[in-house]
Amino acid sequence: MAGNSFGNLFKITTFGESHGKAIGVIIDGCPPNISIDEDFIQSELDKRKPGQSKITTQRKESDVAQILSGVFEGKSTGTPIAILIPNEDQRSKDYSHIADKYRPSHADYTYQQKYGIRDYRGGGRSSARETAARVAAGAIAKLYLKSQGIEIFAHVSAVGTLEAPNLDTTNLSALLDIREANIARCADPATANEMIALIDSIRKAGDTIGGKISTVVRGVPVGLGEPVFDKLHADLGKAMLSINAVHGFEYGSGFSGSEMRGSEHNDIFVKAEEQVRTRTNFSGGIQGGISNGMDIMFRTAFKPVATIMRDQETLNEAGDSTTISGKGRHDPCVVSRAVIIVEAMTALVLADHLLRFKAYKD
Amino acid sequence: MAGNSFGNLFKITTFGESHGKAIGVIIDGCPPNISIDEDFIQSELDKRKPGQSKITTQRKESDVAQILSGVFEGKSTGTPIAILIPNEDQRSKDYSHIADKYRPSHADYTYQQKYGIRDYRGGGRSSARETAARVAAGAIAKLYLKSQGIEIFAHVSAVGTLEAPNLDTTNLSALLDIREANIARCADPATANEMIALIDSIRKAGDTIGGKISTVVRGVPVGLGEPVFDKLHADLGKAMLSINAVHGFEYGSGFSGSEMRGSEHNDIFVKAEEQVRTRTNFSGGIQGGISNGMDIMFRTAFKPVATIMRDQETLNEAGDSTTISGKGRHDPCVVSRAVIIVEAMTALVLADHLLRFKAYKD
Amino acid sequence: MAGNSFGNLFKITTFGESHGKAIGVIIDGCPPNISIDEDFIQSELDKRKPGQSKITTQRKESDVAQILSGVFEGKSTGTPIAILIPNEDQRSKDYSHIADKYRPSHADYTYQQKYGIRDYRGGGRSSARETAARVAAGAIAKLYLKSQGIEIFAHVSAVGTLEAPNLDTTNLSALLDIREANIARCADPATANEMIALIDSIRKAGDTIGGKISTVVRGVPVGLGEPVFDKLHADLGKAMLSINAVHGFEYGSGFSGSEMRGSEHNDIFVKAEEQVRTRTNFSGGIQGGISNGMDIMFRTAFKPVATIMRDQETLNEAGDSTTISGKGRHDPCVVSRAVIIVEAMTALVLADHLLRFKAYKD
Amino acid sequence: MAGNSFGNLFKITTFGESHGKAIGVIIDGCPPNISIDEDFIQSELDKRKPGQSKITTQRKESDVAQILSGVFEGKSTGTPIAILIPNEDQRSKDYSHIADKYRPSHADYTYQQKYGIRDYRGGGRSSARETAARVAAGAIAKLYLKSQGIEIFAHVSAVGTLEAPNLDTTNLSALLDIREANIARCADPATANEMIALIDSIRKAGDTIGGKISTVVRGVPVGLGEPVFDKLHADLGKAMLSINAVHGFEYGSGFSGSEMRGSEHNDIFVKAEEQVRTRTNFSGGIQGGISNGMDIMFRTAFKPVATIMRDQETLNEAGDSTTISGKGRHDPCVVSRAVIIVEAMTALVLADHLLRFKAYKD
Which residues of the sequence carry a binding annotation for NADP(+) (chains A, B, C, D) (predicted)? Predict the structure, then answer.
């Protein structure tokens, strides 16, 4: 109940601190006989790892995943898959200056009050480094979903007020190629260039900026999600909000849907190629909490990174005023790395609900 | 795992269909010796019940709660509290015209595909009538939280594009009085009047409209919420997204925070009246997923009600095109009734996390 | 987490006190489209109800089950099935003499210390009356299992030191007929007569006596049960030990198996009628925590009922010595009524594991 | 839901196969600020490890535990504690002769049928090697319980039909010293010598034998355990039954209690040294599922180890008859090593229920 597990049938439990020996994850409930492609897992981790471009933190971690269990002769066995990611670049002394100070808008103060003790090095457990474990687990979930015909695509749709235009999402794998061709991970090349320039200027100013990530899931059968509390979008929302720095979630029409009339918002059922479809998709592929076979679409808002390269006022543990100076290696904007975390958490939710769905199907 | 339970230590399980014999809830994990004020529970239900004003559905349900267990001589005993709310106004024949048709943007199609069977009367289990059970359970949670000094306030902050100005939230009980003095349940009287006029015009047009609800929670001790997956705001988000018609959730700075710079977004720690506070509250009272003692603040977006009093194109179960006519009794705008549901779900999340917090405190 | 739920995918939550308004249960996770035979549910309750014979308590409760939700036109809909059993014979004044006394080997003392409050009437929540709710839920589980070819049979195999001989279990439904033809619910008629005489003499002496129940489950597919903590027999054991008065559980060779050598205990695999079987069944149908297709066999030990018709020394709430007199209406031996509770809990475990099994099967 | 987690608030998740890279465990929910004595964890593992005496398997594993997270400057931080135990002695070729044969009374057949794939080396996940991870986690739980005044003692009370006399349990730490002074781990020295001789003769005969372990828990506050399904003894029973080779569990009077009369079985409340006690303890320290402050007492029965050094008939994966020869390194009797596993699982149940208890206490 201490909250380090996620999912029910496809369940993960993560561990590890930013500057401890290792981080890692146990995946319990991956179906047997799934081909576990270690290169794929590593390529996913590489998309999240620090130091990958000039617009990310320069901390260097190779983030090499080691599978310790649950895979035999290249296939999942149905037993828990443990993945270990050793920490390498532990410049703990970088953090001695904040050992007894509360960094603004970080978790230092709340951890200290909650536990009476904290590993202050790099934020300890509160560091977004924990999300590498999620990405590794998400890669396993993606391999399972792929075997079931489900694909997931996310990209950076906004940095600050700079928003990408709506994409033609007909070909998700083509969009993925476009996204991976630029360091902003926006699938609109022109906007990507603007984003990179903006983030770079923010970085030079010693500041940070927020952004948004948009996600599309395709190939989900009709029927995933439970109607009351475990609505599919409620579990997706929780998954997104559990990612560091996320402050908002909306699906389908989202916040703008609250400004619409029912007569314009209702998605009319039509038949297309012998399939039941809806003419519009303000429902974001989910009705009554249950997938309806249309693309699942949602958006996630990230606040600006709290660590800035400027002096800030704050309090220390004794309660006295003090100044904290901007030091260390941090991201000016987190969304280009977070794209893969969003996809991972999405995959985990879908894998879990797919298994729940199968339990009741004959 | 079929998703009709919510919470861990303060856990509820709801049951019941719109036009069945009754709906109800079991609350498992209410601490013992809490005074259970039945009048308060009823007054909460009265705020949600249909037919309470001209801007709500005219369906008549008295929604009288019966406590069946778990209370002895006016106090909780630590055993499960079961609450029953009989259904009264079951005009099931109103629904015969939709028995085999899929209402647009309702759950008819997804239920039928998921289960192969559905109680089509009034949407069956997918009806928002289920939320009456949540309100009853939320009332119990509020009684517990009140005994711990925690208060919750929500109001309608927007109907369509009509937004209330930011409120001075110094005195929540005064705001509550203002809110309850108007049928829109907006704590700004001038905006409330505009909202009522807008909803009434929408109703007359046979249409519906969406809106937003803003919530403040005060008196939460520092330390509630678990740092990784069960972040306090992630559980609040899931709770909100589990409410019928909710399409978005944001806390603190929310979506607009994603447009800000770190240097303007960071909440500086200061000492005020011997307490650690933050100068601003873009964090919405939650840092690293854990309450920091400031007011918890979030906002929830509701789509327009799907049932409109107009003819709509759709498909029937056979897959043929058909027309569905606007009949029955429905809400032109759901937010004024949903305020109390938002408060109830908020109370349930807080009560659960308060118990989890206490488990680890000496 | 207050422990009133059981199961994961086929999950029940019970509520109610012995002398409150009603007891009941919510079944969440029953698959849709199962025919819900209300007569069958009632006939199961009738086998547990008090007052059914001279060797049971004379308390009169008709224990009529009312289905409030989750069933539409005779079939389960996949939504929660709520069942209510009103309490009728609430002679609460029978209990005023024990309001502040701790009955020996009852839960009065532990409840009072745990909660600081208790409904002392008839033991409140600690009463075995709660098991009627389990029997109703177990009836639903049995209907589901029957549709999957799984049958469950339990009978009284011992009262005190009086043990029934080993049964030929080839024909379980014939054994069921024999069992139901006598009030002891032992499937060996000669032993049944001796049991009835023994219990009757115990009753006349104002005393009580313990006993044992043996269970066989047939038709379980190979593969139910999870290998580590949720072993099938571990969940069966927990289910049995959760029944009031149960003090022991063993499966397969059980306690006597601990006195055997490996060379005599090992179950040799053989082929019979193109099926993999074992020559002996010391494994009780479960190997490595997973069903192997053989009959599942286990035994449950019940202590003597704590309420005796004799004066006993005890303490009151003030901590002073006092005497408690034997009054009220109670069972001299609980096992003949408990047979149906054992079957119900067995059905709930099997239904849950069958759904878990299906989640991972393609 | 794949069953590799145990506990709710003090929760563990284990991973690893007998001949994979490593086994390990994540402990989620250990309270913060507990001193984590690594030497103690190692000493516990040493009591379970193979090769420790002539009456255990000669497989050599040093079983060195590495703490990867959750501990900072010697104290628990409230975040997940991950412990890794690398596998060293992986003589996988020892197992090539059983790659396609089902060993009698092992989990080979059920795993293969359940998953369609298995790591056959040393039983893979079904190996009792997994219990080393439980012992490491149990050591953490013991450290927590010790800080709360709770102590746990188990010993071998029977090997085959050779039973130790009832012990005077006044001084548990003295009994622990006696137990650790002999390789049978029986706290009665004379019986211990007989057990050692018996096991040695069994070993020489290429056979195996079962046994029983008795456990006492002292210092448990009144009030642990939830009254209905999560009764304290039900969770202890599940914990014991989840240990490899356990076929039976009884607490307090156990199976023999089912042969007693209520008038002899009832535990009379008395006052002793200003404490409420019971004159006898047939209740085993638990009444109504809740601890009553007396010693908690239970007994666990282990079947004989399935691997014997003799040729046995069996089937192979193709379904053909074949012979399996007795090879490899195995225990003639598992109970002397299992004592520490029983204590570990007991500690995990108690730690979990202690936290659940605290959640509801003011």
Answer: 48, 54
Question: pLDDT at residue C15 above 90?
Answer: yes
Length, in residues, of chain A? 362
**Quick check: B57 pLDDT over 90?**
no
Q: Could you give the CA distance from residue C236 to residue C255 in angstroms, rounded to a whole number?
A: 16
Taking the Cβ of residue C50 and every Cβ of chain B, the question of whether any pair is shorter than 8 Å is answered with: no
- List C27's β-bridge partners, or say none: C12, C81
C225 Ramachandran zone, left/alpha/beta (phi>0; psi -120 to 50)? left
Question: What pLDDT, on the 0 to 100 scale, is given for residue B94?
Answer: 67
The total number of residues written for chain C in this structure: 362
What mean pLDDT comes out for the span A125-137? 97
Looking at the partner chain, which of C8, C78, C227 has a beta carbon nearest the beta carbon of A360? C78
The pTM of this model reads 0.98
ipTM of the complex: 0.98
Q: Which pLDDT score, from 0 to 100, does residue B92 have?
A: 60
Contact call for B11 and C2, based on CB within 8 A:
yes
Q: Which residues of A touch B248 (CB under 8 A)?
A: 248-251, 254-255, 257-258
Residues of C in Cβ contact (< 8 Å) with B69: 15-17, 20-23, 125
Residue in D79, D85, D108, D117 to test binding to A, most A beta-carbons within 10 Å: D79
Q: What is the per-residue pLDDT across A285-313, written as a single tens digit (0 to 9) for each? A: 999 999 999 999 999 999 999 999 999 99
Residue among B1, B31, B359 whose CB faces D9 most closely: B359
Beta-strand relationship, A81-86 and A22-28: antiparallel
Residue C308, chain D, CB below 8 Å: the answer is: yes
User: Please, is D112 exposed, middle or buried when counting C-beta atoms within 10 Å of its C-beta (0-12, 13-18, 19+)?
Assistant: middle
Residues 147-166 of chain B with CB under 8 A from chain D are none
Q: Give the SS3 label for residue B269.
A: strand
Q: Which residues of chain D register pLDDT less than 50? A: none
> Is D303 flagged in the annotation as binding?
yes
Q: Scanning every residue of chain D, which has its alpha carbon at the shortest distance from the alpha carbon of B226?
A: D79
Q: Which residues of B touch C22 (CB under 8 A)?
A: 68-69, 82
Among candidate residues B113, B194, B206, the one with its CA nearest the CA of residue B160 = B194
Interface membership of D80 toward A (CB under 8 Å):
yes
pLDDT at B90 over 80: no
How many structural domains compose chain B? 1
What residue has token string 């839920």? Answer: C137
Instruction: Give me the mean pLDDT over the C195-210 stretch.
Output: 97
Domain hosting D329: range is 5-359
CATH code of the domain in which A305 resides: 3.60.150.10
Q: Is pLDDT larger for residue A231 or for residue D90?
A: A231
- A60: which strand partners? none
